[in-house]
Amino acid sequence: MTPAHDVNDYLLGEKHNLPSIDIFNDDGTLNEHGIHYKGMDRFETRKQIEKDLEEAGLIEKIEPYVHKVGFSERTDAVIEPKLSMQWFLKMEQLAKPATEAVENDTIRFHPEKYKNMYRHWMENIKDWCISRQLWWGHRIPAYFLPEGGYVVAMTPEEALEKALAKVDYPLTIDDLKQDEDVLDTWFSSWLWPISVFDGINRPDNNDINYYYPTDDLVTAPEIIFFWVARMIMSGYEYRNEPCFRNVYFTGIVRDKLGRKMSKSLGNSPDPIELMNQYGADGVRMGMLLTSPAGNDLPFDELMCEQGRNFNNKIWNAFRLIKGWEVDKTIPQPETAAIAVEWFQNKLFETVAEVNDLFSKYRLSEALMALYKFFWDDFSAWYLEIVKPDYQQPIDARTYEVTLHFFDALTRLLHPFMPFITEELWQALHPRKEGESIMTSPQPEAGTTDSGLLADFEVLKEVVSGVRAIRTEKNIPNKEELELHVTGGHNNRFNSVIAKMCRLSNITTVPEKQPSAAGFFVGTTEYSVPLEEKIDVEAELEKLRAELTYTEGFLQSVLKKLSNERFVQNAKPEVVENERKKQADAESKIARLKEGIAALTLLEE
């Protein structure tokens, strides 16, 4: 057993009260405990021991084996474990208030799962070795006396004063020797929330009284104990209060193989090259879209490409709006008025959603919500509804409110995409000197009309259904269609549906025409008459093929449901899912047969 030269042996030595015998001098040679090897270098001694054992006939065999040996990353020298005198900080009492603060959510962890890791560390805390044998750092303020003992002081003069009060023999400053060790880097860093406001030297200054405690700390989970826990402890020790309110833990960036990105593996892309290719905002957005709190980031360059494409989308939307000619004399169209009312409510709803996600520190979800809001709701729906006909002007009222919406969108996106949003925000309107989107307030949520939002979702389904028919039947976009409605329908949005689908009229009819192509939205059936717009023979062939496939699918489902062992042993939700497949297939077969019958009559 070598308690002075191995961590595990040291623990066993403590347990069994074994003496710790240090056989090394500081230069790696053996001391008097090395007996006749005294003064020899450690590596030479090991070779000599082997020879001496062989000469004495005490070696049965020699075989190589793999051993993990530590090497200094600075000098590449072999690290030799050696018991030494160090400075320790007692941690048990320091840990108690810091543990309670996280347990009772005075300080909240995001995500909460890291509370378990924190609790494990704190409940099994050991005294902290705060001294390091380095030539840089905060030097330990301890001074050794020539005849033993030490004093702790801020300056040599203070050390001498304390030393003279402690001993009964004459001393000068030159007689005192300051410890050459420096403080552990984390021991300096644990004071960070306090020291940045000079709270150690001046515990009651204006800065620390205003800024302390701070709100949020963003850091990595691998230093939850080395830094986070110790900062919390220092806050309660020196100021008797928490140093921050929330801790947001980021994940580790990993490559496609799941490996941690590191310099040694060489699997980390050059961020400058990424920014040159995709733009700073593109790279930033690509990282944020894949960074749920506390989970690792599976980095893929495709996400940066998606970020760049979104930047282009924003830029092109701005160019479209700014390219419109404005006519102050024309009234606002009904379609634009509806779009403005809907989008204002949708904006309020999205702001409330994003605020909620921010409060829960779900940043990637907040960005995704804004991504969909801009790409789908603003660009694909709002702008398409309000944009004027080709080479026609837009009314001033719609134009101004559209600029207002775009302004709100840039402010919502700014925390995620700071550069393009600042650029476009400045270009929206003339700004004052020094005015910046960085200091402009975020949009606020208002009361939403949930009925309007729900009705507009129905509108979207209707428009998508008509467009699907146009695509499926290869009907050119320039050709006007009719839309028939069978069942309940809100006529309030007819003008929008007509514009988005290029319809000549929307008519309520008692039943669908045999030759019409239709779809359901809820219980309401919508259909587009197609007498002269389709090839009846080709359409019949297509429907018959689909009918054959669907009937075969139904038979496979019925076969499974007729198996008593399956029905009895499968999970209820699995059986229910099969029955839903049966109902859907039977409903589809009925519609296909109806369509085939109608087209057959038309063909005759």
Characterization of this structure:
This protein has 604 residues and is α/β, with parallel strands linked by helices. It has 5 domains: 1-84, Valyl/Leucyl/Isoleucyl-tRNA synthetase, editing domain (Isoleucyl-tRNA Synthetase, domain 2); 88-140 and 179-249, Rossmann fold (3-Layer(aba) Sandwich); 295-438, Isoleucyl-tRNA Synthetase, Domain 1 (Orthogonal Bundle), CATH 1.10.730.10; 449-534, hypothetical protein PF0899 fold, CATH 3.30.2320; 538-604. The protein has 21 helices and 18 strands. The chain has helices at residues 7-16, 42-55, 92-103, 114-123, 156-166, 185-189, 192-195, 206-211, 224-238, 271-278, 280-289, 301-322, 334-359, 363-386, 396-413, 418-428, 450-472, 494-501, 536-561, 564-569, 572-603, and strands at 88-89, 108-110, 128-129, 131-132, 142-144, 150-152, 177-178, 182-183, 214-219, 244-249, 253-254, 297-298, 326-327, 394-395, 481-486, 503-508, 517-521, 524-528. The chain has a 4-stranded mixed β-sheet with strand order 16-15-18-17, with helices on one face. Strand 9, helix 9 and strand 10 form a beta-alpha-beta unit. Helix 3 (92-103) runs antiparallel to helix 4 (114-123), helix 11 crosses helix 12 and helix 13 runs parallel beside helix 15. The chain is elongated and about 115 Å long. The model has no long low-confidence stretch (mean pLDDT 92).
